[in-house]
Design goal:
It comes from Streptomyces gossypii. This protein is of the alpha+beta class. It has four helices and six strands; from the N terminus they run ααββαββββα.
Length: 152
């Protein structure tokens, strides 16, 4: 196995671990995956958050307010250049809100987010997240007017 292939596989594993930690709601595991400083995150619809404290607080807030979340990653592309790696992917997200008053599961909602995750090789040789940027994908819904409806 070449070094480039091994690095690509290690980066893809680190990327998968990032999403797995969020799915489990495991903030400690998530924190271990990020570099110690100079990190940033852009969650869909949020401003840029920088610094470890702000980034970890944002994930804690998301986890505290999401009873269920699952990511199905598609279109995953990994590029490694030296000690930096870029992963682009589509997050096909299924999430659920708080349980209903009767104890039944809350409503499930689906969404699409295009994400870019930047990794840096850490001193121990492992790959750590440097930056995550997620942008929502707007999907034309059936309730939205067609161009013909607008023009007509």
């Amino acid at each position: 196995m070449s070094g480039a292939t091994a690095d690509g596989e290690a980066v893809e594993a680190a990327n998968t671990a990032l999403y797995d930690a969020v799915e489990r709601g495991d903030l400690d595991a998530l924190a271990e995956l990020w570099l110690d400083d100079e990190i940033s995150v852009v969650h869909p619809g949020w401003p840029v958050l920088t610094g470890r404290g702000e980034v970890m607080r944002s994930y804690a807030l998301i986890m505290a307010n999401t009873d269920y979340i699952q990511f199905f990653l598609t279109d995953v592309e990994v590029t490694v250049l030296g000690d930096t790696a870029l992963v682009s992917c589509t997050e096909n997200i299924l999430s659920g809100g708080p349980a209903e008053e009767d104890g039944s599961a809350g409503p499930l909602v689906g969404g699409l987010v295009v994400a870019t995750n930047v990794f840096r090789r850490a001193e121990d040789g492992g790959w750590k997240v440097w930056s995550h940027h997620g942008s929502p994908v707007l999907v034309e819904g059936e309730d939205e007017p067609d161009e013909e409806d607008i023009e007509g």
